[in-house]
Every structure is written in structure tokens, then in C-alpha cells.
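Re: the multi-chain job from yesterday

Posting the exact lines I submitted so nobody has to dig through the queue logs.
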Amino acid sequence: MSETYNILVAQSGGPTSAINASLAGVIRAGRACKEIGTIYGAINGIEGVLERDLVDLTELLGEDDSVLDVLKISPAMYLGSCRYKLEEPEKAVNQLIPEYERIDDYTCIFNILTDYDIRYFFYIGGNDSMDTVMKLGKFGRLIDSPIRFIGIPKTIDNDLPVTDHTPGYGSAARFVATSMMEMAYDTSIYSIKSVLIVEIMGRDAGWLTAASALARTSFSEAPHLIYLPEVDFSDSQFLVDLRGKLKDHEHVIVAVSEGVHYADGTYVSMHSAQKDQFGHTMLSGAGGYLASLVHRKIGCKVRSVELNVLQRCAAHVSSLTDLNEAEELGKRAVYGAIEGRSEQLIYLKRLETEDGSYQVEYDFADVAEAANKEKKMPLSMIAPGGNDITEEFLKYVRPLIQGEPTIEYQNGIPVYLSIKHLKV
Amino acid sequence: MSETYNILVAQSGGPTSAINASLAGVIRAGRACKEIGTIYGAINGIEGVLERDLVDLTELLGEDDSVLDVLKISPAMYLGSCRYKLEEPEKAVNQLIPEYERIDDYTCIFNILTDYDIRYFFYIGGNDSMDTVMKLGKFGRLIDSPIRFIGIPKTIDNDLPVTDHTPGYGSAARFVATSMMEMAYDTSIYSIKSVLIVEIMGRDAGWLTAASALARTSFSEAPHLIYLPEVDFSDSQFLVDLRGKLKDHEHVIVAVSEGVHYADGTYVSMHSAQKDQFGHTMLSGAGGYLASLVHRKIGCKVRSVELNVLQRCAAHVSSLTDLNEAEELGKRAVYGAIEGRSEQLIYLKRLETEDGSYQVEYDFADVAEAANKEKKMPLSMIAPGGNDITEEFLKYVRPLIQGEPTIEYQNGIPVYLSIKHLKV
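And the result, C-alpha cells for all chains:
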């Protein structure tokens, strides 16, 4: 009788519309491999492991593979999330010798993994989650554990190094581009000068804000100005830029990252800290501040819109390319782990093709290369004036938002997989 | 040779995802009727008429009917909009006698309509637009004009009397319900108490905010609380309601109309007027204020989201029922005008059916019954506690969000009709 081992999979960090597609990929591949026994999921990431909150995913989802099609297109995180930072594994290992009775996080986690006969651990997340994969892998090596740890990337921010782009980014970009274009239509109806400021997520990297340029069509150049955290912001330059655009356009739309900051590092959103009537400070965001600046200095009709959490959960407008790649990453992670890989990250590598068509392959890298690191937009993708993107960026991003997933509707709203097993 | 007359059609008020469907209906019916010659559109509503900014719609759109399919699903207003209130027609008529050389708005409009050989005038809009139709019709009668004036309703607010519901409402409701459900998924991922306040459009009527209840599925009861302008708001009762929900739920979502107000009539959003660092007042909205209240009085994680203009322009998630009805209203308006109707409004009448299935018929009413009037939600659709809706409302609203229009995508974003003829 051949030996089988179990899988544990968990999700961590902020939600994306594609993170469940990677989970579906892990489950599909796990079910197809004869080496795999049970596929467990940890509820709320590594916190769930620490609390032994593990579920048998076949028990929870049933054996019917078509449920995985619904999981693939469902927003948020089927297994819930956490933000939990493990201490340095060397420190934990050293602690093992003098005071063996003290159970540190690592000992606790490895005890549980051993109890559940886990050989393969998959963590789907961003920079912080890759830190967890790296530390668990390192600790495992220090204690000669056979358990293999693989990271599967995701983040709407697209700020993970190594990978060409991150799952979740394409779907968020598609929502941003679609909404931006629809708002360009919306602002066009009155024959009165107007400015619309659209605030988009991204504290340190401008990838998602930049994707708003995908809204440009033969009808509208909106967004007419794009401000990213990669370039220092200046109120006065912004007003110069805007006045220039208002000369040629009746309606000007500005896309701005939540994380834009001045040369001294102060966030524009901090600058806009306001007091309510009780004297309590409230943050209105960069968009709100810029709208008030336009109102004061230019005086035309102005409105600010925050796309807010919809950017990461509007799964009804997901990119099929994004979902397919996310699922494939999940599958390949399983194959890689079975081959013997550990402390690695599965990632997307874009191929140079003769006809310029979009093609990716999947590869593994040392997870340490991605852990705790951020990839900002290169200067070659930002226009020299610092208020727009370049054609190079559009070539990079356009393939990522292609294709519509098939979504079933019931009572007029999309059918997603229930997550009643989480505390809701 | 039989005589033909021309059509003039215009749009007015705020945009909806269905208003172009009514325009498509007018054009389709106009093209099919042998009594009709040229179909003109006025750019930016009645203002465009006053400025002789009229376009031949067949010249602009071409003769290919398939373009009308794209027009039908395109957001915002193909002909642009205005907010322009005509003076009382009696006053204008009386002015005609003493000082004939002064050209008032009515004389100007009727001169232009006569120049263009217009017999049928269609105005697609809300309460204010129906006021324009009423006044033009009345003036025409006073001067024995043969021109017929018909109003075609639209507004995301659903606050027009006479009609069972307004075109545009179903599509906006579908966006609100879909987004609300997706946000319910989004908030569920962390195992930490949280409150999300979602601010929805509707200054005087709660119809659209109430539609957020369509997000409720077997997975989530979100929104857990719903506050409408029809019920006086109280900060202390809100905190009592919210604390109650937080006992049973990890994540509570509150839907609130932008127009909620206290018993003394003060808007909650006014209450939240804040000063920025320069001492300038900024409105953060009802949602922003309530989030700050929760932060101070309850202290849990809280966030506020304004759905903002996306509610009225997110055409990629339109209701097919809504678009079909809007188009049909446009067609029927033309038939009615040719039959001799004037100073009337075409509207939707819901039928009582034996099996309870949804069915509407189309009828005409005196436009004065809808002009300048507002339809609020009846008390029977609001739960006794004033913080939720009733089953009666759900039965009313659910049929309105059914069905998905066919949308073509190019480069990952929806293909809508260009509105380059407007000043953009």
C-alpha cells in the first residue's frame, strides 16, 4: 500500500477576487494526485493553525468538482484571513533548548501539522504571507521536518517582487478601468466645467491607480491625470496640471493613489486630517483633500469618489485571465511540493513572443526573494511629467484584464459560494 | 403624398443606466412609423432647444439598427442633460401681449420647434423634467399649437408618482444589491468585530437604499440595519440597534440613505460638516458621520463606503428587465403621441396576476400628476422599528433587477456608444 500525506492550505492578508481561484487550484490538483490523502484548510490563516481550527475541505465542499467552479469566481476568502507575524525562527529554535516546556508558535504549529499528518503546506497571500512561508520553512529545516512549505502569491496591489504580476491585480484593474470609463460617461452629461477626483487603493505602489488608464477609449481620455505614490506629489504642480487640462476639456477626471505623498514623505491624506464637531480627527483621504483644494483654488464643480473595498471584492467584473492564472498557480504549487520543493514561491513569468502576444509560464523561486519586499512601478512606466503612465505600462497591463468568467445569477445577483463556516 | 412630421427627443436630470434605452425605443418606433420624418435630438435637454443645438439622430447614429442595441446598454445620457426650470407659461403668455418684441423661453422654443417641423416632443427625465413637459404642453395649448408633448419617466430614485416604478431604478438597485453582497463577503474574512456603513443615494426617498436588502442570501443577512429618509433618524437609537446586532454578528453592515435626517429636519450629513485645516467646511456625508460615531461610542473597527456615482452609471451590471421596460416606454410614447396624446406621461402599471408572477402594462396619465411631486416609500414597506424593510418591499423590488443584458467587451472593458458629440 502506497503512503499518502495530507495537504494544509490557508489564505492570508487582504482579499482579492482571485484568491479563491488559487484555493480551487490546490484542491483540484490535490484531488488528482494519488500521493495526497486529505486536503485540510485552516480557518483564518496561520491563526487558525495555532487554534487547531482546521477543516476537511472535501467534507466542507463535497466531492462534486463543479462546486470548485463556483469557488473559483467567489470574492473574498473562503477560508478567512489573518494578519499575524511570526517571530524569527532562529530565536524560537534557540528557546527550545533552555526552556523546553514553553510552547512557542513554531512548536505549536509543527505539533499540529504532525498530528494532522500534513506534508504539504500552501499559503496564499502577499508579502507578509510570504514571510510566514519563509519562516516556517526555515524553522522546519532547523528541526529536520519533512514538511514542505510553498507560497502562492496574491494581492490587488501587484507589489510582489519576482512574479510578473500578482493574481488579484488583473481583476481589481478590470473593476477600476470599467468604473473609470463609466464615470467618464457620467461626468459628461452637463455642459458645465467639472473635475472628478477618483481615489484608488495602493499605499506604496501605484499599479492599481495606473490601471485606470485602461479606461481610455476613442471617446474619452479619462483619466486625464494620474498621480502615483512613486512620484512626490505637489499641490501647486497638481493645480498647474489641472488648469492645463481644463483648458482643453470640459470634464477632467483625476486618478489618485490613496498613498500619494509630498517630497517630505507626508501623505496627502494625512494633510487632509479633519476635525468633526466634537474635535475628533477624521481622515477624508487624498481624494477628499484634493477636491477641497480644487474647490478653493479653482472654484469649479468638483466631486471626489473613493472606489474603496469594491476594488478588491467586485467579483462580478473579474478578469478571466486573472482567475485562470490564479487557479493554475494553485495547481502548480501542489505539483512542485510533491516534486520536493519547499521554501519556494510559485510565480508567473511573462514570455517574450515573436508576435508580441501575451503568454506566461509558471516557475518557482526562493520565497525569501518575495517576503517583506515591495515592487514599485518602474520609472519607464511613468510619464516624464509624473502625472500619467506610458505606453509600456499599457502593454504590460492590458492582457491582464481580458476575458469574462461565467457567473450564474439567482434573483438578479451573482451566485457565490457561501462562507457560513466563517464567523459572519 | 402623405404628410410626415418630425420628432424631437431630449433627456434631462441625473443619469441612469436605462435612460438611453428609452431613447433607443423612441428612435426605433419613430423609424418604424410612416407618419414620422426626421428624428432630432436636442443636446443638453431644453437648454439645447433654446440654443438650437439639435442633431439629426439618424445622421449621428447611422441607419444600422444594431447601433441602437449598443445605445440601449450605454450608461449616462447620449444627448446630455441640463437642469433648467421654465417659468410659468401663463406668465409668459401674458407677457406676449404688452411687449411682443421680448422673446421669452416659450416663444423661442416654439419658434425653433416650428422651424424644424416638430410635431412630437419627448422628454425623458424625472420630476423636474415632467414639469417642463407640463409647462410646454400648457403653453402650446394656450397658443393653439399642434405640437404634442409626452414625458418618459426615469430616475434611479424611484420617487416619481403614478408609475409603479421608474426606469433606471432597477439597474441602480441591481448594482447596490450586488455590491452590498460582495462587501458582505469582503467584511467576513477577519475574525474581529467590525462595522461597515454603506451610504446610498436618495435624498428624500429611501427606495434605492432599501434595495440593498436584495443582497440578503442564505449566507449573509447583510445589510443588518437599513435607515431611510422616510423615518426620523436618532443617533442614540442607531447605537442601540447596532449594539444589538453586534451581539449576534461578528460583522455588521449598515445601509444608510444620504438623506437621513433627525426629527427636527436636520440632515445627518449636515451634522457631520467638518472643517479642514484651513477652516473650510467639507461635507463627509451621513456614512462618514455615523462611522465616526461608532468609532467614538463603540470603538470597534469601522469603515464607511459611499457607493457614489457608480450607482447611476455602472451599466455593466444593469437589469435587463429595467432596460427592456425603458425601451418599451420610449416606443409606446411615440405610438401615443401619434394617436394624438399630449401633456401626458407614459408609465408602468403592475398587474395583479393569479400566480403572483411579475407583469406590467403601459398606460398614459396626465403629466401634471407626476410633475414636481415625490413618491416616498409607504410605511407598509418599512419595518416597525424603522431600521429595516418588509417582505412586501422585497416582493415589489425583486422582479425589477432580473436579467443580464448582453454586453460586448473590447480590451477587457464594456463597449458603449461614444458620446463624443457632447463637450467632453
